[in-house]
Amino acid sequence: MIKFMLIFQICYSVAGTCFPPMNEQLYSSYRECALNGYYKAHEFMAKIPVEQVEDNRIFIKFWCVPKKQIEENEKKVDT
User: Fold this and answer.
1) In the prediction, which pLDDT does 68 show?
2) pLDDT digit of tens for each residue in the chain (79 aa)?
3) What is the DSSP letter of 2?
4) CA 39, CA 37: separation in Å to the nearest integer?
5) What is the dihedral of CA 58, 63, 3, 75, to 10 degrees?
6) 8, 68 contact by CB (below 8 A)
7) How far apart are CA 20 and CA 5, in angstroms?
8) What is the largest CA-CA distance in the chain?
9) What single DSSP character describes residue 1?
10) Residue 71 to residue 79: CA distance in whole angstroms
11) 24, 64 Cβ separation under 8 angstroms
């Protein structure tokens, strides 16, 4: 079965910038990855002070990438 890497990216809407994407962890299915993405994005946003979220209009993007695709991208970087 294909494993999926959960990847997060935190962005500031006001500044129009995003931090580099961060690998979170591998999941055994796409569904498990996506559900955890929503859950963890919610948890993270809830921990950020309200003023910071409002002032910067912070949002969190996430996506799930097949492990094979990550390995292929790493090979491209190494060469």
Assistant:
1) 80
2) 899 999 999 999 999 999 999 999 999 999 999 999 999 999 999 999 999 999 999 999 999 999 886 666 666 656 5
3) -
4) 5
5) -100
6) no
7) 15
8) 44
9) -
10) 13
11) no
Q: Are 64 and 6 in contact (CB under 8 A)?
A: yes
Length of the chain (residues)? 79
**Which amino acid, residue 2?**
I
CA distance 24 to 42: 14
Pairing mode of beta strands 22-27, 58-66 = unpaired
**Cα 54 to Cα 34: distance, rounded to the nearest angstrom:** 26
Query: Per residue, what are the HEC states of 13-60?
Result: CCCCEECCCEEEEEECCHHHHHHHHHHHHHHHHHHCCHHHHHHHCEEE
* 8 neighbors 40 (Cβ within 8 angstroms): yes
